[in-house]
Amino acid sequence: MNESLLVRASRGQRTERPPVWFMRQAGRSLPEYRKVREGVPMLESCQRPDMVVEITMQPVRRYGVDAAILFSDIVVPLKAAGIDVEIQPGVGPVVASPVRGAADLERLRPLEPGDVGFITEAIHGLVAELGSTPLIGFAGAPFTLASYLVEGGPSRHHERTKALMHSEPAVWHELLSRVAAITASFLQVQIDAGASVIQLFDSWAGALSESEYRRYVMPHSASVLAGIASVPRIHFGVGTSEFLPLMAEAGADVVGVDWRLPLDEAARRVPGKALQGNLDPAILFADRAVVDVEVDRIVAEGRAAPGHIFNLGHGVLPSTDPDVLARVVERVHAAGGTEG
Ligand code: 1CP
């Protein structure tokens, strides 16, 4: 079979070594990225297929990673569906009129494929340029996107989001259904254009208790994941070790694990699932020998799962030295995998 290591590992097949890529590999830690982005606002760069192709290719060229991830952002489909959202430098996504009640829901209309023609065009260009390297498409999960919509921007405690969830559950579920529909159609556009694997980022789900997750969030993530089962699906959260089985049950082929839980323990919690992770992005600032030991440990612990995709436990930090990431790739590439 000619399937990529990434797809084989995602399907829980034993591979000669783990495939490796990094969340946020395309972006701020690369000097060539900062150069291309000079003077171009973030969301504008996401809408220009030539820039998307170039920025997506940069880490593939530099590191020789086993997968590309589309250069985009989780708020791109919201913007394309008519929400007034910007990405402010040094802040993140900022929503001009936050969603606070039933009357605001009308503003969340469905996303038509024609709204994101720039994504289709960029992916066609990428598939041609990438050759045998697979492309990962992605979207924000309904809860993480809803947090930006309700809070109006980045939030530490997600207090308005939780207040809405508990005080007005009907409004909450309608909000998440609408966001899930946008997310699902955004992912379908990426699959139709040629993405080989998709990742659903629920970066802020770790703010929730297991029962909140089960009741208010999981059904909506499950509806997104059920609709896109034609490609392997990675489901990732940060601080979600306590409800990893629910994230698997929501419809993941691969469960993303942050650095808090060793992969062999994660494998016990979600038996039969492939795993992705889980080097602490902060460890990349430690001495070289420390990084080497951590990489080897994670490769070894990953053998407890039927398939393992080597990654960080969350995104590359902006001030990471690209040479350290290059060395991690080299070391994973030299490792023996789960075969035999
Ligand atoms: O000017 C800049 O360079 C802006 C920085 C930046 C970049 C490079 C933002 C703003 N988004 C991105 C690209 C991006 N966003 C990618 C690119 C592909 C890759 O991984 O290489 C991806 C996958 C995302 C996804 C994303 N955006 C997530 C989920 C992943 C994660 O790290 O948890 C989240 C939460 C966002 C929101 C967002 N966008 C940008 C920032 C600074 C943030 C976080 C703000 C916050 O703290 O809430």
From TrEMBL:
Pfam (any one): URO-D
Catalytic activity reported: uroporphyrinogen III + 4 H(+) = coproporphyrinogen III + 4 CO2
Keywords assigned by UniProt, alphabetized: Cytoplasm, Decarboxylase, Lyase, Porphyrin biosynthesis
Signal peptide: none
Subcellular location, record wording: Cytoplasm
GO cellular component terms, semicolon-separated: cytosol
GO molecular function (one): uroporphyrinogen decarboxylase activity
Domain Uroporphyrinogen decarboxylase (URO-D) residues, every copy: 19-28, 136-152
GO biological process: protoporphyrinogen IX biosynthetic process
Keyword Cell wall biogenesis/degradation in record: no
Primary location class: cytoplasm
Top-level division of the source organism's lineage: Bacteria
Pathway: Porphyrin-containing compound metabolism; protoporphyrin-IX biosynthesis; coproporphyrinogen-III from 5-aminolevulinate: step 4/4
EC number assigned by the record: 4.1.1.37
Quaternary structure and partners: Homodimer.
Similarity-based family: Belongs to the uroporphyrinogen decarboxylase family.
Task performed by this protein: Catalyzes the decarboxylation of four acetate groups of uroporphyrinogen-III to yield coproporphyrinogen-III.
NCBIfam families: hemE
Name of this chain's protein: Uroporphyrinogen decarboxylase
Native organism taxonomy: Bacteria, Bacillati, Actinomycetota, Actinomycetes, Jiangellales
